[in-house]
Amino acid sequence: MAAHQPLDLERINPKEFDVGSLDDELRVDELCTRLLLAVRDRLLTDGPGDPLVVGELCQGADYFLREFVIAECADNLLELPPERVRQFAGHWYIVRTLEPNPKELAAILGGVAACYRTLAATGLVDPARAEAIAAGCADLPFYSQRIADFWAIEGDGFDRWRAVCPLPAGQA
Fold first, then answer.
1. Is residue 171 part of a domain?
2. Predicted TM-score (pTM) above 0.85
């Protein structure tokens, strides 16, 4: 299998990231991989530079984008509603992860914030959107409490827990 080549961030058409069918999802998943390689290259040059740190950041962004934004929500990742971060971190990650924990979640969200700030610096994402996404990523006390509350659910308490931070319409 051939290695993925990074996308040229200056030549991306945002509409290429629209998801409307399973074929689109597969195509956008591949584009996302290539986009993240380009983000990685930018972070190596203009960001922390440390390959281990950059790799961890991109791994976190990869999980959020490919598993939640594209596969679960079918969102265009370049036009992402900022509330998706809260839906992911305050609900989806918790119910979809065997052992959800604040440390792992913080690493994922750090990658999401770094990715969107990089995309904003290249003009692919509106800076206000990137900052709103980064602000959502920074609400770690809320997400830690959500995890603790999840583990404390008893009886029929799941519906009350879910109502505090519901997923997008149509999601489990």
1. no
2. yes
pLDDT at 95: 96
Helix 127-137 × helix 102-121 angle, to 10°: 170
Rounded Cα distance, 169 and 121, in Å: 31
- CA-to-CA distance for 123 and 114, rounded, in angstroms? 14
How many domains does the chain fold into?
1
- Cα 82–Cα 128–Cα 6 angle in degrees, nearest 5: 75
**Does any domain span residue 77?**
yes
Measured distance CA(114)–CA(73) in Å, rounded: 21
Burial class (CB in 10 A: 0-12, 13-18, 19+), 169: exposed
Q: Is residue 124 part of a domain?
A: yes
Residue 50: domain span: 17-164
Using only C-alpha atoms, what is the Rg of the chain? Answer: 16
Q: Is 63 inside any structural domain?
A: yes
- How crowded is residue 39: how many other Cβ atoms within 10 Å of its Cβ? 28
pLDDT in the model for residue 9:
79
